[in-house]
What does this fold into?
Amino acid sequence: MLQLRHWSKSHEEGGRGKSSRRRRLEWDCLEERMLLATAGYDYVLNGTRWADPSHITYSVAPDGVLWDHGPSNLNATFNAKFGNGVWQRQIALALATWESVANINIAQVADSALGFGIYGKPQGDPRFGDIRVSGSSFYNRDTPTLAIGYYPPPQGTTEAGDVEVNTTKNFTIGGAGGSYDLYSVLLHETGHALGLDHSLNPKAVMYASYQGVQAGLQPEDIAGIQAIYGARVADPYQAQGLGQGWTSAIDVTAGLGSARQTTVGNVSLATIGATEYFTVIAPNTPGATLQVTAAAGNVSLLSPKLSVFDASGNLLGAAANPSAWSNNVSVNTAQLVPGQRYYITVTGATRDALAVGAYQLQVAFTGGNPPSQVTPPSGTVSPPSGTIIAPPTTGPVSTVGPDRFEPNNTSALATNLGIVVNSVTVGNLTLDTAGDVDTFVLRNGKAGIYRILAGGAAIRVFDRFGNPLASDVGELSIRVFKPRTPLYVQISSATGTGNENYSLIVSAQKGKGAVTPPVKVRRPVLRQGAHRLV
Ligand SMILES: [Zn+2]
It folds into this structure.
């Protein structure tokens, strides 16, 4: 392999039509570089990349520390010129533009008053971001350089990925009147920081000299960054068709546990305008509050918008901060209805690249107390007579505790599973005592046959008037003629012993099933039948 001595450790961007190279000695393999360019796509890769593309960080260095071309003065210069927060957003947008098309996540972190290029970890150094952005007057030399960018590790020190802006140049937002558009210049430099070399195509963002305002990436820039890290992909839930609408909402109820809280990681908005849907069932503790947080802090550049709805789709609360990025937003919902299903959506707070990125969803129920006694059902809903439930026996010593929906022993306290279009699975359920009855209510999303499974437990289904519709042990099927018919499902021990674990699965069946007349509650037998609901 031919190795050529090449001067290219970092790149400086010239003024209009000009370019120059910062002269630093480095061994580079020109032959390999040429091979990395693909015919038809005018991108060139440097050959370096971030070792952990899912956790790239960046920071803005404070003023006064010694930077590559003099003391840093970016904050003071740009605060005076643009206002605090305005220019920082251009940095975030530039990085987010790359993040929005590649399988990477970039988060902003704090920076410390340490000079450029000190020794440390090439990625994940806790003192500053992997990519540090700063600026200096370049010693007030008359140089055409607008900014420089360093490639990813290995560069020997923490300078890998760092960007330095020449603060003596006439930067604006928009690039009018012969000025330099800050976003366009930062987009180019952060492309270097992620591993892209100069393109030979003058239209490309990665062309070596400033060619005017770039509204975004060109096809060859996108092809280049995807050649390094791959295209941005759907998260594992979306890849299974989950989380993309109300009926496919990701059910986080099973993850709540005894602390009544859960964190869903590894979720991501893959495109601008995407929305991800979640759902959770409130515990049967009157007075509880639901706190939901969409957290992009330390995760990605996403500026999340969070909304919470009740089972009927009424908006209960929303939170967003479109002026922020890499941030967390929370919604608190009090006055929860015990056992009620709630829905949560996460989308971008903006309509630009800051609407894309990974995040975590945190769901927590706080406060509230279980009712001191189980209220008997009221009105027209009457509990079925106990033809199935055996009288309590002394039985074996119970080793399973009450599940998270207790007490849901009656129709009035039924756990609301919402509208089931295709299927719902509720795991980690228990019949902790011989007399424990778990009651659920759901509505079918469409007419047809629904199959209900509950391990080896006794299943009984009632209409909203308390009329029995079907019963069986382990599983049964029921035909429902009208969509959104309330179905009350009672689960009890088939053996009369309690101390059982089970999962409840309700799923719509494809194809036709036999229709039988309405039946009365029967002795439980191990068979599957189809039962008609009028
Ligand atoms: Zn460059």
In short: The CA atoms of residues 269 and 356 lie 5 Å apart. Residues 11, 13, 188, 192, 198, 208 surround zinc ion (CB under 6 Å).
